[in-house]
Amino acid sequence: MIAHELSEGSLATFLDAFYVKVRRDPEIGPIFAAAIPDGAWPAHLATICDFWSSILFKTGRYKGNPFAAHLGKNLQPSHFQRWLALFDETAVESFAPDIAGALSERAHRIGESLQAGLFFRPSAPGVAVGRFQATGAASGALTA
C-alpha cells in the first residue's frame, strides 16, 4: 500500500519493511546479523524509528551517535550503496513519489556524511570516498 502522507505510523511501517529486506539481503544482511542479535531487533528498530523521527519530524527522540554506532563494523562503501539501493526501492514501494524522493534524498545525504566520517583519511591523498574524491591531504578538499 502506497502512503500519501509521511507520519510516525507510515514511517514505522516503511522502516519495518525496509529492515526486513536488509536482514534478508545476501550482501549486507550478514553484517547486520553479526552486529544485532535477533532478540535485539525490536529495540534496534525502535532506535531507528527515533532517529528518523528526529530527522524528519524534529521530535528529538533520538539521543544516540550514528557515527559511533557504525565504527568497527568492517563496513565498506559498497555496503552503503546496497543499503541505499534497498532504502530507495522500499521508499518507492511505500510512499507517493514526492515523499519517496524526499526520504531517499535525506538518506543519501546521511549516508554520504557517515561514509565521509568512516572512510575519508586526510593522510591518504587521492582516496575515493563514496562518490567523492579526496584531492588534497592538507586541505581535506573533496570534489564530486
**How big is the Rg?**
16 Å
Annotation, overall tally of beta strands: 3
State the major sheet.
3 strands, antiparallel
* Helix and strand pattern: HHHHHHEEE
Write a structural description:
The protein is mainly alpha-helical and 144 residues long. The protein has a single domain, classed as Globin-like, CATH 1.10.490. The protein is 60% helix and 7% strand. The chain has helices at residues 8-24, 29-35, 41-57, 66-70, 77-94, 97-119; strands spanning 128-129, 132-136, 141-143. The protein has a three-stranded antiparallel β-sheet. The radius of gyration is 16 Å and the shape is globular. Mean pLDDT is 86; it is low at 127-144.
Q: What attributes does this structure have?
A:
144 residues; mainly alpha; Globin-like; three-stranded antiparallel β-sheet; 3 strands; 60% helix; globular
Quick structural summary:
This protein is mainly α and 144 residues long.
What's the structural blueprint in terms of helices and strands?
Layout (H helix, E strand, L loop, with lengths): L7 H17 L4 H7 L5 H17 L8 H5 L6 H18 L2 H23 L8 E2 L2 E5 L4 E3 L1
Helix pairs in contact: 1-2, 1-3, 1-5, 5-6
